[in-house]
Amino acid sequence: MAPPLSWLLFITLTCSTLLISCTASEEDREADDPSLSLALLPCTFANLWLQVYIVYMGDLPKGGALSLSSFHTNMLQEVVGSSSASKYLLHSYKKSFNGFVAELTKEEMKRLSAMKGVVSVFPNEKKQLLTTRSWDFMGFPQKATRNTTESDIVVGVLDSGIWPESASFNDKGFGPPPSKWKGTCDSSANFTCNNKIIGARYYRSSGSIPEGEFESARDANGHGTHTASTAAGGIVDDASLLGVASGTARGGVPSARIAMYKICWSDGCSSADILAAFDDAIADGVDVISLSVGGSSPNDYFQDSIAIGAFHSMKNGILTSNSAGNSGPDLASITNFSPWSLSVAASTIDRKFLTKLVLGDNQDSISLNTFKMEDMLPIIYAGDAPNKAGGFTGSESRYCYEDSLDKSLVTGKIVLCDETSQGQRYWLPEQPPDITAPGVQILAAWAEASPLTDVPGDERVAKYNIISGTSMSCPHASGAAAYVKSFHPTWSPAAIKSALMTTATPMNVKTNTDLEFAYGAGHLNPVKAANPGLVYDAGAADYVKFLCGQGYSTENLRLITGDSSTCTKATNGTVWDLNYPSFALSISAGETVTRTFTRTVTNVGSPVSTYKVKVTAPPGLTVKVEPPVLTFKSVGQRQTFTVTATAAGNESILSGSLVWDDGVFQVRSPIVAFAPAFK
Questions:
Q1: CA 526, CA 532: separation in Å to the nearest integer?
Q2: 16 within a domain of the structure (yes/no)
Q3: β-strand partners of 218
Q4: Under DSSP, is residue 6 helix (H, G, I), strand (E, B) or coil?
C-alpha cells in the first residue's frame, strides 16, 4: 500500500535537513569523537573529523605582509563560524609567499577552496626522506679552481637536522656570516651554531615531539647530517665508516655556509613544515636549497608543498635541488618534477665495497660489512629457521621478526632475511628528465645520537656512514649548483640548471636501457658547469606561459605570481616551447610525429664566438636545426633557433642529442622521442 502523503512529506523534510546541517559547532569541534554528538547525527561523520590542511594563496600581497595573520584568522572565522577561529590557525606563511595551515573539516575545506584569493587547499601529507670518492669520480678534485666568494654562499638544507659537533662542520678559519644573511639560529641547551652552520631552525606543526627526537635542529637519525656534509661539508682527513672507505671526506663547496631547516622527524616530513621552511629560507637569504625529500605520488604543481616552495624560491633567484625519488626503475615513478627546480637521479661511482660471500652456487656476492671476520661462516635462510616453540612459522621467520628465529639454528651463522617492502633499487639510476649524480654507497657525516642499524643489540655509533639513494645524489647536485653560483652570483636558477645539464657527461646507453628516463641529461660535471659557454635561461614569465598552456587560470596565476599575468592566445605557451635545455616528444605505435621546438640561448662564454650544430639521432628519429650556425659578438647576447624533430613510433624510446660547438665549448642537449607508456 502506498504510504500517506504526510509520511512522504516528513521523509522529504528530514532528508533536506540531513543535507544542510553539516556545520560543526564549537562543542562538536572540541569533542574527541563527533559520533557522540546528537547534533551531528544527520551528518556524515567523515566530513566532521578535523584534518590539517594547507591553504595556499600565492605571492605576498602588495603593501607588505604585516597583517596577514589577522587576515588568515578572519578567513577562518568566515568558514568556521566561531569566535575562537584563531585556535585552529596553526601557522601563517607571510615572509616569502601567502598562505596558512589550519584544522578544518572536509566541508570547511571545500568552502575555503571556493573563497576569493585562494589558489588551492590540500591535506598536510607526510613526505619521506628519500661520500669520500664521489667528487673525485666526477672530475671535481679537491684542488679544483675556486672563487674566494664561495664563503659567501649559503646552502639551505631542508632535512632531519644536523649534528653540529661533526668535524665536517668545524668553523676553523671561517669569518663571520656574510652581511646579506638575515637568518637566525634557534639555539637551545643541546644546540648551538657557529660560523659554518650559520642558521638552524626546526618545525613541528603538529606540536608534539616524537620520542627519541630533539626539540631543536639537532639531528636524531643522521640523514640531514649526511646530506648537509655532502653538499657543503668541510675537508676531513681519515674519515671512514668504522674503517671502511677511509679517505678525505668533503662537500662540494667546503668553504660555503650551511643553514639547516629541520622539517623531518621519525614519523616523516609534513607538507606544512616544508612550506614553513621554504618561507623562512627564502627570506633568510640562502643561495641554493637542497631537499632530499619526496612524496609517494606526484601532485598538481600548486597542491604540492615542494613545487610551491621551489616556485617562490625561483622567483627570488634561488635554485631548489630535489631528489627525484627512490621508486625506480618503475615507469613514471619520479615525484619531484616541476620545471623550475632540479630533479636528480642516483647512480653508481667507480668504487664498490666487497666482502667475500660465497653462496651455494659458488658465486661471489657484493656486500658492505663493518664487522671483523676471522673465519668463513655458514649461511642460513631465515625461512628455514623458525622459532616453532614460540609459535612462528617459516613464512614469518623469513622476515627476521623479533623472536621469530630459532636461536639454536642461527647462532654463529650469517642469516639471510627477506625484505617486507618493495625496497629501493639503488643500483639502477632513478627516473627524472634532468640529471644524475652519485647516490650509491656514499660516505658522509652522521649523527651520533642513534645506533648504526635497527638490529636489536647493535649499539654501535659512527661519525661517518655509508648510505644510498637519491637523497645522496641530490646534495651532490646542490653542492655543484652552489659551486656554479659562487662564480656567477647573478645567474638565474634556470641558467644554473642549464649549465649543470648541458655540461653533463653522457651515459652509456647500452647499460642504461631506460636512457634519459633513467639519467636525464647525463652525469653531473661541476667543473665544466662553471663555464658552460651557452645557457638556456628562463624566468617567472616563461613559467607563467608554460602554466597558461597547462590550463591554469589568469586569476590563479595572478595570485601565484603577484603581478598582472594574463593567459591569452599569445601567452598560452606549450610544454615544448618552454626554454628548457632538453627536447622531448611523445609517439604512438605505427604513428609518425613531427614537433617544432623554439629555443633561445644566451652567450656566457667567449665574447666573439661561432657555434655550429651537431646532431646525433638513431634510425627512426630525424632532426633539423635552423639556423645551423649561431654567431655571437658579446657576452649576454641571445640567439634563437628552432628544432624540428620527426619520430616514427616503432620503438619505446628513441634517444639523440643536439650539441652547439664553437671549438672550445660543447653545449649538449638530449632529444628524446618516447612511447605513451613512458609519459
A1: 10
A2: no
A3: 162
A4: helix
Q: Which of 69, 61, 126, 127 is nearest to 102 (CA)?
A: 69
**What's the CA gap between 412 and 675, in Å, rounded?**
52
For residues 481 and 559, state if they share a domain: no
Letter string b/e over residues 233-253, b meaning 16 or more CB atoms within 10 A of that residue's CB: bbebeebbbbebbeeebbbbb
> How far, in Å, CA of 235 to CA of 494, rounded?
29
| 223 is an active site residue | yes
Which region, left, alpha or beta, applies to residue 433 given φ > 0 means left and ψ of -120 to 50 means alpha? alpha
- For residue 347, what pLDDT is reported? 67
Which residue in 327, 341, 471, 492 is the catalytic one?
A: 471
> Which DSSP helix (H) or strand (E) runs through 555?
helix 554-561
Asked whether residue 217 is assigned to any structural domain, the reply reads yes
User: Do 405 and 284 fall within a single domain?
Assistant: no
Query: Looking at the 3D structure of the chain, how many domains does it have?
Result: 4
- What number of residues does the chain have? 679
Q: 188: domain range?
A: 146-349+439-455+474-489
Q: In this structure, are 269 and 184 located in the same domain?
A: yes
Candidate list 160, 166, 216, 223, residue with the active-site label: 223
Catalytic residue list contains 159: yes
Query: Is 571 within the bounds of a domain?
Result: yes
CATH number, position 601? 2.60.40.2310
Cell 521523509 belongs to 11
What span, in angstroms and rounded, lies between the C-alpha atoms of 286 and 81?
40
* From 117-121, 292-296, 383-387, 446-450, the region with the lowest mean pLDDT: 292-296
Give the burial class of 66: count Cβ atoms within 10 A of its Cβ; 0-12 exposed, 13-18 middle, 19 or more buried.
exposed
| Residue 614 contacts residue 552 (beta carbons within 8 Å) | no
pLDDT for 336 beyond 50: yes
Statement to judge: residues 334 and 231 lie in one domain: yes
Within a domain: 96:
yes
Judged against a pLDDT cut of 70, whether residue 351 lies above it is answered with: no
Residues 6+ apart with CB under 8 A from 312: 59, 96, 97, 278, 282
Q: What is the pLDDT at residue 523?
A: 86
Q: What is the pLDDT of residue 357?
A: 64
Annotated active-site residue in 59, 159, 514, 662: 159
User: Identity (one letter) of the amino acid at 270?
Assistant: S
Q: Which residues contact 95 (CB under 8 A, 6 or more apart)?
A: 65, 279, 280, 282, 283
- pTM for this entry: 0.83
Give the phi and the psi of residue 227 in degrees, each rounded to 5: -70, -40
Q: Are 219 and 292 in the same domain?
A: yes
Residues 118 and 256 in one domain: no
